[in-house]
Design goal:
two-stranded antiparallel ribbon; 346 residues; single chain; 42% helix; alpha/beta; globular; TIM Barrel
């Protein structure tokens, strides 16, 4: 919390996150951890106890919200990526069929149950936050990004109505998660779910179909102690969308009602530059390469990356973490190496 307040804590805090239920060394049934609140809480508590993180980011199966609107999925043992069997939105007209969900009456009830359990077990000792995807991200999961892109390009009123519906549902969910005991949210802004749309949209389109709804959701959760904006660019090092990079340089995201920001700094927009641009308003969260160093490097490589990150960002207002979801192929030793390196810096 000192880091969130842009102060210098006693040691460097660290947050690590992944699809925890899919980590092979935990021996948990991933599908069960996605569908059952007790299992989701249990695996996150095991993960927290094993590594001693300073901030627990819970990453539930984000498509649980889509199941409430009729999407169908197939889990494959040993695979963290779940296949979409059927979209609920198959054509433009289907956007109008979406209704605002009441989370306790859908599969989202399991998320709320998990939050209550985690709060009961560690809430007085370790802050934990809940992952909430942006409305346009959810739209991509409901329909596929091609249909979303077509709706944006045609300035579809149907798509806008659907985004209103998704936004109101996510506001309900976020408020219930906070009431259940979570200390805050990790909010993802990304235009689309399956493929990177940053390079296919104009600034005006991103503002109209993504940021407008992001702001509404975040404003509704302004009372949360921790509000982290995750700016997601993609999962490849070469994904450096010019529009997003330009916005980062222009301090664009300082207008968002959050107190911390996370992005893949090892891919684009380095930490030292970010400290200069955003350090006066936001705590920075990042420094670790979730696609390369963590899954493929040695523990010594991870330790070096932690130290260079702290050197770049400075010890005040900084939390060590990945730029996005850590691959579940990452060795257990590399999780330990990251935590030990961060906690060893005074």
């Amino acid at each position: 919390m000192e880091a969130i307040a842009r102060k210098k804590p006693e040691s460097i805090p660290i947050a690590l996150w992944t699809h925890v239920g899919a980590l092979p060394f935990l021996g948990v049934d991933y599908e069960k951890s996605c569908k059952n609140g007790e299992a989701l809480a249990e695996v996150n508590l095991i993960f927290q106890k094993k590594f001693g993180l300073d901030l627990l980011k819970v990453t539930p199966y984000f498509r649980n919200i889509c199941i409430g609107w009729g999407c169908k999925y197939k889990w494959t043992p040993g695979n963290e990526w779940v296949a979409t069997v059927e979209y609920s939105v198959k054509k433009e007209e289907d956007w109008e069929t979406l209704k605002i969900l009441d989370p306790p009456k859908t599969t989202l009830a399991e998320d709320i149950k998990a939050a209550k359990i985690i709060a009961r077990e560690i809430g007085d000792r370790i802050p934990f936050i809940w992952t909430i995807p942006g409305a346009l991200f959810i739209a991509g999961a409901l329909a596929g990004d091609d249909l979303v892109l077509a709706g944006i390009r045609s300035n579809s009123d149907r798509l806008k109505k659907a985004l209103d519906t998704i936004t109101e549902t996510e506001i309900k969910l976020g408020q219930m998660i906070l009431e259940a005991g979570a200390n805050g949210v990790f909010y993802t802004t990304r235009p689309g779910a399956q493929r990177d749309l940053w390079n296919h949209l104009t600034r005006a389109q991103v503002e109209e179909f993504s940021f407008k709804y992001d702001m509404r959701i975040l404003e509704s959760l302004r009372g949360a102690d921790i509000r982290i904006l995750h700016v997601c660019a993609g999962h490849k090092r070469e994904d450096k969308p010019k529009l997003l990079v330009d916005m980062m340089k222009e301090e664009y995201f300082t207008r968002f009602p959050v107190n911390a920001i996370n992005w893949w700094d090892r891919s684009y927009f380095d930490l030292s530059t970010a400290k200069r641009v955003y350090g006066n308003k936001f705590c920075l969260l990042g420094g670790l390469d979730q696609e390369n160093t963590l899954p493929l490097g040695k523990p010594s490589d991870v330790q070096t990356e932690v130290r260079t990150a702290v050197d770049a960002a400075g010890p005040d207002g900084f939390i060590v973490g990945p730029g996005c979801t850590i691959r579940t192929s990452t060795p257990e030793a590399n999780f330990h190496a990251a935590v030990n390196a961060a906690h060893g810096i005074r």
